[in-house]
Specification:
- The protein has 254 residues and is of the alpha/beta class.
- The protein folds into two domains: 136 residues, Nitrogenase molybdenum iron protein domain (Rossmann fold); 111 residues, Nitrogenase molybdenum iron protein domain (Rossmann fold, 3-Layer(aba) Sandwich).
- It contains ten helices and eleven strands.
- The strands form three sheets. Strands 1-5-4-2-3 form a five-stranded mixed beta sheet, with helices on both faces. It has a four-stranded parallel beta sheet with strand order 8-6-10-11.
- Helix 1 links the parallel strand 2 and strand 3.
């Protein structure tokens, strides 16, 4: 879902456009939209495919307002559910053109790429990536039906997972997996080891920074007993961008 502040109800493609992205995945989606040359500011941990170095304006939670203003952006892309509301409010109060972006489902990824491409005038480049995204997702959706149970481990200590409201839960379903904690009331939440054991997952997907050795102690879990524990780099599974396709491919091949 993409929305603009009230100052930008009508968005036209502009020449020499200047964009600042206040979340790593937003900068990465802008690159996929063909708007790399328009990016003038990003935040910490942004990893562009091109490896291009772009001016840092802070991180997703604390930004340098003076630097942002000095870069004279036409648009500031913000993460609606990630950037603090106080930051978004401050940017708007400074008279900046704020584009609020919310990724709730897989379809929001190509939709966001398309939206950024429209303001940058780079639709032809974006369409190539959008077409590839749909091609990969549909290929696996047609191959698998959700039937195997999966535990998605996003953090070790404490043990964290995500609910069915998270876009990643939909991503694993592409490969025929059902998130065992899809009914959690929160987007992301701590979970007990006992709860995981009770749910009896067929596969454990670890997308934390390091492998989790604790599982080898629990041979009564199907995933452990059958050696069905998969670790995928968070770079490929933790961000709603084009790199996610590589993570999905790895999971579907497992």
């Amino acid at each position: 879902m993409v929305s603009c502040s009230e100052t930008s109800d009508v968005i036209d493609a502009q020449s020499n456009l200047r964009i600042i992205a206040l979340a790593p995945h937003l900068a990465e989606l802008a690159e996929s939209a063909g708007a790399l040359d328009s990016l003038v500011g990003v935040v910490s941990y942004t990893q562009l495919e091109s490896k291009k170095i772009i001016e840092s304006v802070g991180d997703a939670f604390k930004v340098d307002y003076e630097k942002i203003i000095s870069l004279k952006p036409d648009y500031v892309l913000v993460w609606k559910d990630g950037n603090p509301a106080s930051v978004i409010h401050k940017l708007k109060s400074l008279g900046l053109n704020v584009l609020e972006i919310e990724i709730q489902k897989l379809a929001d990824i190509p939709r966001t790429i398309e939206q950024i491409a429209k303001i940058a005038g780079t639709e032809s480049i974006a369409q190539e990536n959008i077409k590839h995204f749909h091609l990969v997702i549909n290929k696996h959706k047609n191959q698998f039906k959700p039937q195997r149970k999966i535990f998605i481990e996003t953090y070790h200590q404490p043990l964290y997972t995500i609910s069915g409201m998270h876009w990643l839960s939909e991503a694993v379903s592409v490969c025929g997996y059902e998130n065992i904690f899809k009914n959690l009331s929160q987007l992301s939440a701590p979970i007990s080891l006992e709860a995981v054991i009770t749910k009896k997952p067929d596969v454990i997907l670890n997308i934390a920074l390091q492998p989790d050795p604790q599982w080898q102690k629990w041979k009564d879990i199907n995933a452990v007993k059958n050696n069905r524990i998969l670790t995928i780099s968070p770079d490929l599974m933790s961000h709603p961008n084009m790199k996610l396709l590589e993570g999905i491919e790895k999971l579907c091949e497992f």
